[in-house]
Amino acid sequence: MTEMSNMFELMSVGSNCAEFSPTEEGLVSSVGSSMSKSCAKCKHFKNYKCDIDVYDKVVAGLDQG
């Protein structure tokens, strides 16, 4: 996986995750903007891993859609 595709996946998951909890104010759902939701900007994403273990579930849901 390239860094760009990984960044896009983190944004897609962040935008579709019901458990997303932002680390900063003003984040929006539109993928690709500098203020877009992303796992990297979520309080639950620590050490490149979702600490509440929902990342894989959200990715699986994206694959179904």
Description:
It is a single chain. By secondary structure, this protein is mainly alpha-helical. It has one domain (3-64). 37% of the residues lie in helices and 6% in strands. The chain is built from two helices and two strands, in the order αββα. It has helices at residues 3-16, 55-64, and strands spanning 45-46, 49-50. It has a two-stranded antiparallel ribbon with strand order 1-2. α1 crosses α2. The mean pLDDT is 86.
Explain the layout of strands and helices:
Elements: H1 3-16, E1 45-46, E2 49-50, H2 55-64
Antiparallel strand pairs: 1-2
Helix pairs in contact: 1-2
In a nutshell, what does this entry contain?
The chain is 37% helix and 6% strand. It is built from 2 helices and 2 strands, in the order H-E-E-H. The protein is globular and about 30 Å long.
Number of β-strand runs: 2
Residue runs with pLDDT of under 50 for 5 or more positions: none
Helix content class: 25-40%
What general form does the structure show?
globular
Q: Work out the oligomeric state of the chains in this entry.
A: single chain
Key terms for this structure?
two-stranded antiparallel ribbon, 37% helix, single chain, 65 residues, mainly alpha
